[in-house]
Design goal:
heterodimer; A: alpha/beta; TIM Barrel; eight-stranded parallel beta barrel; four-stranded antiparallel β-sheet; 11 helices; 35% helix; B: alpha/beta; seven-stranded mixed β-sheet; 6 helices; globular
Chain lengths: 315, 276
């Protein structure tokens, strides 16, 4: 028995680590490479009905404690992503999650229906991109009604394919938002997307650096926020959670599980730990399971909510 | 012989002023900026013009206190960049990528503005007393960069119109040079059709090769996936841009139009062909 195996609706993952959307997810070859390096599942870059170039450079900017990005949903469009997912599936048995977005509720429905042609293992509705407000308006994930509508149409059009909704902390209450998603048919909650947005100024020229002036914040800086969000989602729903946000170490991954995540997203950590980060954290998780006498890591999921401290811990 | 790897790039932005501008021609210029870090030939930086755009450029040389970037005006950004003057602020992120190995006895081949990293490589090999044979190709004499320096180094030149050196393509020179003086390896940068011919040449002579490829790049830090090549999926901004034979063998997209900012390859038919 693989101690780090985990499950999501309809899926068995050999590792709880899921390549997060937006990272190395543009092409079949890139996704297949990440899968071969130890990801339990991979998520495509979010795609919509039409190709989008996204914002100009600089659109990705590391700073001392994380990374800002205003990529702006660049993607080659659903036609091309269907090809990429097919090509991926010919090369890898690791589950693939198709991340989709729409400018309108209807577009979410259309892109979901089209994405089914690729037979992904799961559809993830990205209702939480912080970089397209000027064009798209307030993210769907910031409003209970809009989020409910998107969840409903994606679920309806996804048929038998499980649906995850990727939430933002930029909303009145992420726990309640997750509850709304559950009521409207979501099978999984992915939490969280980048936070902020944030800004960095080049003082020498007195000007923001990112082309779109602001960008979502990811990386180690956001980990505590993401962890708290996963905790809240767990309080409000019984749905499985993919906990994403600043996970760069084994301990972060374990914390995510203890807060209630069933799987753990890996994104910016690829910058800090290289593509080997999946292998590194997998090994650490196996070691954690061994050291704690766990037959399965599943035994720690959500334990920070209820369990008394282990005996002899001094707590 | 591998040069020592530099520490992993943080990818953070650093601002500096342009120290000096060297005009090679109206459309070819070199910019000297402070030496913000050590780098290897073949590595590149992302250069930001505040409020305009950010693009990757190979480092064309490093001296004691400065680093050189050489630019050909080919698009809106580079046309704006070559108008920049001494004292203007630019942002630099890098160094990115792996760089060329230093192979004593190698043939170093540069085509057009691809001469930029090859010139840095030649410079570093000369400093370390490592022998090499330098070959440079360009469309016309006006497209040559570093001409006086290259002549001083005994560089073999070719131009498409014969305005400098041999008339023809740079690859036409290689078999002759090889017959005369067998090389140990080939290091090359330039337009992709030239690079593919160099790969054929190297295969014909069973020579190891290290070739620098270009693709659309965004982050430089190995996360966006924009520069992943089809086939192996490796990232040109991290595992590249310099690939060896084992790595190029796994690439399936050479010679095709490059994927654009959206990730779409120009010329891709609209309706999906993928299904079964």
């Amino acid at each position: 028995m693989n101690p780090i195996q985990t499950t999501l609706p309809g899926l068995t993952l050999a590792s709880p680590l899921v390549l997060a959307s937006g990272i190395l997810g543009l092409t079949a070859s890139s996704l297949a490479r990440v899968a071969s390096l130890g990801a339990g599942a991979v998520t495509t870059k979010s795609f919509g009905v039409e190709p989008r170039a996204g914002h100009k450079a600089p659109s990705i900017l590391p700073y001392e404690h994380g990374i800002l990005n205003c990529v702006g949903l660049s993607n080659p469009g659903v036609d091309q992503m269907i090809r990429e997912i097919w090509a991926y599936r010919a090369r890898s048995v690791v589950p693939i999650i198709a991340s989709v977005f729409g400018k309108t509720v209807e577009e979410f429905g259309v892109v979901t229906a089209r994405a089914l042609e690729a037979e992904p293992d799961m559809i993830e509705a990205n209702v939480s991109c912080p970089n397209v407000a000027a064009e798209f308006g307030v993210p769907f994930g910031a409003d209970f009604g809009s989020c409910a509508q998107v969840t409903g149409i994606v679920k309806k059009n996804a048929g038998r394919i499980p649906v995850a909704v990727k939430l933002t902390v930029n909303c009145p209450a992420i726990g309640r938002m997750a509850g709304v998603c559950e009521e409207h048919g979501a099978d999984v909650i992915t939490a969280i997307n980048t936070i902020g947005p944030g800004m960095l100024i080049a003082t020498d020229v007195r000007r923001p650096v990112l082309s779109n002036l602001t960008g979502g914040v990811s990386g180690p800086a956001v980990f505590p926020v993401a962890l708290r969000a996963v905790w809240e989602v767990r309080k409000h729903t019984t749905l499985p959670i993919i906990g994403v946000g600043g996970v760069t170490t084994v301990d972060h991954a374990v914390q995510m599980l203890m807060a209630g995540a069933t799987a753990v997203g890996i994104g910016s950590a690829v910058h800090y730990g290289g593509v080997d980060v999946f292998q590194t954290i997998n090994e650490g998780l196996r070691e954690f399971a061994r050291a704690n006498g766990l037959a399965s890591l599943g035994a720690v999921i959500g334990t920070a909510h209820s369990e008394p401290p282990p005996r002899g811990s001094g707590a | 012989m591998m040069t020592q790897a530099v520490p992993p790039a943080s990818g953070m932005l650093r601002m500096c002023r342009i120290l000096e501008v060297v005009a090679h021609s109206p459309v070819l210029k070199s910019f000297l900026v402070p030496r913000l870090f050590d780098a290897l030939p073949g590595q590149f930086v992302n250069l930001w013009l505040p409020g305009i755009d950010e693009k990757p450029f190979s480092i064309s040389g490093i001296r004691e206190t400065c680093m050189e970037l050489s630019v050909k005006a080919v698009g809106p950004f580079t046309r704006r960049l070559i108008e920049c003057a001494e004292g203007e602020w630019v942002g630099i992120r890098g160094p990115f990528g792996n760089g060329f190995p230093l192979e004593p006895g190698a043939l170093l081949v540069g085509g057009g503005i691809g001469m930029a990293p090859i010139r840095f490589l030649a410079q570093m090999m000369a400093e370390r007393g490592l022998p090499c044979t330098l070959v440079c190709g360009a469309r016309t004499r006006a497209d040559l960069i570093f001409e006086p320096e290259l002549l001083r180094w005994g560089c073999h030149m070719s131009t498409d119109d014969g305005s400098c050196g041999t008339c023809g393509q740079v690859t036409d020179l290689l078999d002759g040079l090889m017959a005369e003086h067998p090389a140990s390896a080939v290091c090359a940068a330039g337009p992709e059709p030239m690079l593919l011919r160099i790969m054929e040449f190297a295969d014909r002579w069973s020579l190891p090769y290290h070739i620098s490829f270009e693709r659309y790049m965004k982050c430089g830090i190995g996360i966006c996936g924009q520069c992943c090549v089809d086939g192996s999926g490796i990232r040109l901004c991290i595992e590249g841009p310099v690939l060896n034979r084992d790595q190029t063998r796994l690439v399936t997209e050479f010679g095709l139009p490059h994927r654009d900012a959206s990730g779409l390859r120009p010329g891709t038919p609209a309706s999906p062909l993928g299904k079964r």
